[in-house]
Write a structure and sequence with these properties.
Cytidine Deaminase, domain 2; 8 strands; globular
């Protein structure tokens, strides 16, 4: 499982949720995929949901953007369901899984984070398959990034 920050605390996201995120990002290739992971509840009783979003960037091979109306709908639905955004995720196409300068500018315009309690996951997709991943969180006035083991994302429930 992967610990992600959300709502001011660290929480373990179940592997099958992470696998859903990876499936969406691989399916979006050769464009960047994007979305969010929402969480409701606390501790062992937490419930998780992957919300894939369409990439609304005018240059979707090298950037991602949420359409404002889609982001608003996610926020409204999350409010009704008493969920919080735990993670914003996106892929990099045939490029490293690093939280780029552009990712930083979008997440913290003017150096102020838009979602300071949220983790950002970047997954490198090469040839349609996830090859590496990283997680970034806002700490001490900047984003801190650590690599993630893809083995954590490759869980599939037995059939």
């Amino acid at each position: 499982m992967l610990a992600l920050r959300g709502g001011g605390s660290e929480a373990l996201i179940p592997p099958e949720v992470l696998a859903g995120m990876i499936r969406h990002l691989e399916a979006a290739w050769p464009q960047e995929g994007c979305g969010v992971i929402l969480r409701s509840g606390e501790g062992e009783g937490s419930s998780w949901r992957v919300v894939p979003l369409e990439n609304a960037s005018p240059t979707p091979r090298v950037a991602y953007a949420f359409a404002p109306e889609a982001w608003l709908q996610v926020c409204l639905d999350a409010d009704v369901r008493q969920e919080e955004v735990a993670c914003v995720f996106h892929s990099h196409v045939d490029a490293p899984a690093v939280f780029s300068a552009e990712d930083r500018r979008q997440a913290a315009p003017s150096g102020i984070p838009l979602l300071p309690q949220v983790s950002y996951v970047v997954v490198a997709i090469r040839g349609g398959r996830a090859s590496s991943a990283s997680r970034s969180v806002w700490r001490a006035g900047d984003f801190q990034t650590v690599p993630l083991a893809l083995a954590d994302f490759r869980f599939e429930k037995p059939v």
